[in-house]
Structures are given as C-alpha cells and as structure tokens.
Amino acid sequence: MTISSYSRAFALVSLSLGSSSLLAQENKEVLQDMSDPLAVYTQGGMGITDQGLNFKLGMAYDTGDPDTMAMNILELKGFAGDLLHLDGNDSFDSLRYRHFSLDTTTGRGSQLDVNWDFASDLGSASYSFIQALPPMGDLQLYPLVGAGLTVTDTAEIRGSDNPVGSVGYAIPSTYMVVGTYAKYSINDDVWLNYNPMYINTLNSNHYMADLMDGWYHEVAASYQLNPRQNVRLFGNYSDSAATSSSVEWRLEFNHQF
User: Fold this and answer.
1) In the chain, fewer beta carbons within 10 Å around the N or the C end?
2) Over the stretch 190-222, which tens digit does the pLDDT of each residue have?
3) Percentage with pLDDT > 90 across the chain
C-alpha cells in the first residue's frame, strides 16, 4: 500500500469514527432522564399487581414549538388476573389516558388525566399544572394543582313515588386536587419518590365526598438498569372514607424508545 493509500484509508477511518461519535452524541442527547416526573419521551411499560397485568404506551410528538414538548400516554390495567391466579379477572378492569405537555423554558407542565373503572362504571377527568422547583441538594419537588369532574353511566332519576330509571351518563361531582411529586436521588441509578395528593369535592354530594375526599399517597423505589430501562416498585394507599387503608403494590418495567 502506498503512502497516499494509507492517507486515504486513515481519512476514511477518521471520518467513520467521527460520524459514529456524532451519532452517539445525538442518541445520547435524545435520551431523557427517566427519573424526572416531567420528562417527555416515547416509552413502553409492563407491570404486575394483585389484580393482574398492566400495560403502558407513551408517544411523544412534535408540538411545532422548540420550547415545548408533549406526549400521550395510555395505560390498561388488571389484565389476566384470573389466569395468573391473582385477585382480578381476565379482562381489563380500568384504563387511564394522559396528555402531558412541558414548557422547557419555565419547567412548568400541564396534564389532562382521564380514568375509567369498568367495574364501577365510574370515571374521572382532571386538568392540572405541575411546576418543577429548584433542587434542594438531592431532593426536588414538583407541586401540582388542578380541578376535575367525575362521570358515571349508571345514573338514575327517582321520582317522589317511583324511580324513573337510568338516564345514562351524568356528572355526580366536581373536585379539586393539590399535592406534589417528590424525588430523592440516592445515586445516579437509584431514586425514591413520594407523591401525596389531596382531593376535595366541590359540591354537596355526600356519597361522592365519602368516596373521594382525603389524602392519596404513592411511594416508589426505582432502579435504572441502563439509560433506556428501569424497574420500579410502587405502593399506593389512601385515607378516604370509602377505600381500604391497605397498601396496593405494583412492580413495573419501563423502556424508553
């Protein structure tokens, strides 16, 4: 091989290594911090609870504004419970849809959160704002405030003597929610979350007040397997009058695409 051939080969290798390095940097820049409650990225997840299997799919999309990010997330919960000898049945018992957007210049997010429980034919929809506060050492808080309404498709009208019967969908209550997401980083791969939320109904429906009013707590311990994958263990409990005080556990695996 001549000197010029060596030069051309060296140039090609340098160009190839440089391109690979740039590509790796671009891929690294695309990946989001999966421990950040305000992170926006395309993702998939699967979990298991005492009721069955949960599935999650999140799709980030281009908002057309370089200062904003947004995604849609759909979760289906409680599948194959009877097949796996758990407490649930083999059909999905609930679903959750969220639309989340983030202003990267202010650290403020907004979220539309829609839930439906197939067993009780009761759902809810809320809209809330979330603000990232400056870190305090290894602790960071993300306060939340919002308002929502509940929906049922088993509403009935009762007359003075006889019930009129079902009237289909109705809105039995409205409510407000305040709380915070909290993250404590132990190291680069392990972090803890505590997310207390307080719900209070805004109308005089005593049944819905007993069903919903109170504190809702979520704790989680998470481990980042690699930049794209983590495993998380959640515990949820509440002190509302109509719910059990026992902790509901779920184990979840998440992948960032």
Assistant:
1) N
2) 999 999 999 999 987 788 888 899 999 999 999
3) 64
Rounded Cα gap, residues 169 and 157, in angstroms: 12
Whether the pLDDT of residue 4 is over 60: the answer is no
User: What's the CA dihedral at 17, 23, 24, 29 to 10 degrees?
Assistant: 150
Q: Which of 133, 142, 139, 78 lies closest to 111, judged by CA? A: 142
Residues 6+ apart with CB under 8 A from 79: 52, 53, 54, 55, 88, 90, 91, 92
Beta-carbon count within 10 A of 211 CB = 20
Q: Which tokens sit at 203?
A: 């109308």
Q: State the pTM of this model.
A: 0.81
Position 1 pLDDT exceeds 50: no
Cα 220–78–49 angle (5° rounding)?
35
Percent of residues in the chain assigned helix, strand, coil, to nearest 5: 15, 55, 30
Contact assessment for residue 104 and residue 132, using Cβ atoms and an 8 Å cutoff:
no
Q: What is the rounded CA–CA span in Å between residue 227 and residue 220?
A: 19
